[in-house]
Design brief:
Blueprint (H helix, E strand, L loop, with lengths): L40 H13 L4 E8 L1 E2 L1 E6 L7 H7 L3 E5 L7 H10 L3 H4 L5 E9 L5 H17 L18 E4 L3 E5 L4 E5 L6 E2 L4 E6 L9 E4 L4 E6 L4 E2 L4 E7 L14
Parallel strand pairs: 1-5, 3-4, 4-6
Antiparallel strand pairs: 2-12, 3-5, 7-14, 8-10, 8-13, 9-12, 10-11, 12-14
Helix pairs in contact: 2-5
Length: 268
């Protein structure tokens, strides 16, 4: 639609498809509606996806951001146990959440096991994560081969795939791990054109200029600078170069609790 691929949001409700998955109190597919249930197609699809995940120790949901580094989200009970995944993928950052994610697929896939006794849940053996493979434009044979090799290394290290003997040991991981409430969502203070002064991977200090919003070209006195609220690492930025007031522009991982941090997901 209008030269953009649709699929993230329900056209009728504008609800993010990766929200509102069923949260089961035990990993039993019988608790989910069947294919013949009188439910809408999106509810049926979510039930089918969740059902496929139940009973598996490794559940990886592959995504990409607008523009960004390679990073992933992981539930707090599974961190730092998923450090080997970060090492295998060469992730630049890991976002750890603990207060729910608005029933995103990742939360729904781990939720039943968090309700079980520890000896039955075996959380140390589990990895459930949402992987963000950089940005939408980062599509190339080089990236594809590197990311596939990373997933392969991880699965070999976990014993899912039998090693051939040529695989090197996973390296130590020295990326940035942060609680989700340490991620600043930098939003547009006004509607207008957006000129970025930073890109993903840049390290900034509090007060640094991150972007300039131009509400009215030709009237520079109306330009608004967007400043870093704290020191940190630029994780992502929006792909489009125009914005409505209040829309997300960048994610910044800081060293302290973010301004306006709230439970749940970072964005809709």
């Amino acid at each position: 639609m209008f030269s953009e691929v649709q699929g993230r949001f329900h056209v009728g409700t504008r609800t993010n498809f990766n929200r509102d998955f069923p949260l089961l109190d035990r990993p039993d597919p019988a608790l989910l509606p069947g294919d013949d249930a009188a439910v809408t197609a999106d509810v049926r699809l979510k039930a089918r996806l969740l059902g496929l995940s139940l009973g598996h120790e490794i559940v990886l949901d592959l995504h990409c951001d607008d523009e960004g580094l390679s990073y992933f989200y992981v539930p707090a009970p599974l961190w730092p146990g998923a450090r080997d995944l970060a090492a295998a993928l060469g992730a630049k950052a890991v976002i750890v959440w603990g207060d729910g994610s608005d029933a995103a697929f990742e939360e729904a896939a781990v939720y039943p096991y968090l309700q079980m006794p520890a000896d039955e849940a075996r959380l140390a053996d589990r990895v459930v994560a949402t992987l963000e493979f950089r940005g939408q434009a980062d599509v190339s044979p080089v990236f594809a081969q590197a990311d596939a090799a990373g997933l392969y290394r991880f699965l070999v290290a976990r014993g899912v795939i039998r090693a051939t003997g040529d695989e090197a040991a996973l390296p130590d991981w020295y990326g940035r791990a942060a609680q989700i409430d340490h991620v600043e969502m930098i939003r547009a203070p006004e509607a207008g054109l957006v000129f970025y002064h930073v890109e993903p991977g840049d390290r900034v200090e509090e007060g640094d200029r991150l972007a300039t919003v131009v509400p009215m070209p030709g009237e520079p006195e109306r330009d608004v600078d967007v400043l870093a609220p704290q020191d940190g690492l630029i994780l992502t930025r929006r792909m489009h170069r125009q914005s409505r007031k209040g829309e997300d522009l960048l994610k910044l991982i800081g060293g302290r609790r973010a301004t306006g941090a709230r439970p749940g997901t970072l964005e809709e």
